[in-house]
Amino acid sequence: MADPQNGPIWADALRQYIETTGKPLRDARFSELRSAKDLCNALEQQQSSFSEFRSKKVKIFKALSGTLTVVELLVKIGSGYASTAFPPSSLIFGAVTYLIEAARGVSAAYDAIISLFETMKESTCRLSVHLQQDIPPELRKIVTEILVSFVSICAMSTDYINQGRTLKYLKGLRGRDSAVQGSLDRLKALTENEEKMVVALTLSQTSKTGKVTDNTNAMNNNEDR
């Protein structure tokens, strides 16, 4: 069942994606993309005619998988969209598909995409350490915002590459373009906030457990007297 609280966040993200790229993410060909493996298999079939893609395929897939496996985890534990035709995984993998398509066999564009996902991995790799189970409601909104941030970054990146501004885009990844760097900084801030919230919730739960244990011990001591 979809999470009604986060529905408007996704609706706004989809609207902004179309405004930026002119492309819809609710495309039938993306509905079956539920994992990083599904995406890589689809890209392999689609891009194999480009020699530059074939020569960089290993690096591209390694960069994608490092970030998108975390996306899979976030979707599974926090989104509540598993039964819909276009869950967040399909929307995000669709955005990545459009981004790879924008490269059109251009070596520099593939290099830019590799750099992008390596940069995003630096912000998201820590999430996989502590997001190994279902999460409390307090974290669901921030998880959704992290997922939406991926879509936003892919949209901006696709627009840059479609316009042939790959060099400017690469400069942005190195902190020399406020729009690109601003989106990456937001992703980093969201993951850091999520991590802090996990720590706070863990400490709170530990404190409650400690109080229950203390009360139980006190009751047992009274019974022994």
Keywords:
225 residues; mainly alpha; 0% strand
Characterization of the model:
The structure is a single chain. The protein is an all-alpha fold and 225 residues long. The chain is built from nine helices and no strands.
* SS class: mainly alpha
Radius of gyration: 21 Å
Compute the number of helices. Answer: 9
Helix content: over 70%
Following the backbone from N to C, one meets helices and strands in this order, namely HHHHHHHHH
Task: Please provide the count of β strands.
Answer: 0
Shape: globular
Mean pLDDT: 76
Distance between the termini: 53 Å
Low-confidence stretches: 207-219
Share of residues in strands? under 5%
Instruction: Report the biggest beta sheet as strand number plus sense, adding barrel if it closes.
Output: none
Task: Please give the structural blueprint.
Blueprint lengths: L6 H15 L14 H12 L3 H28 L9 H16 L3 H18 L2 H4 L6 H26 L3 H11 L1 H47 L1
Helix pairs in contact: 1-7, 2-3, 2-4, 3-4, 3-5, 3-7, 4-5, 4-7, 5-8, 5-9, 7-9, 8-9
In summary, what is this structure?
The protein has helices spanning 7-21, 36-47, 51-78, 88-103, 107-124, 127-130, 137-162, 166-176, 178-224. The chain is mostly helical and 225 residues long. The model is unreliable at 207-219 (pLDDT under 50).
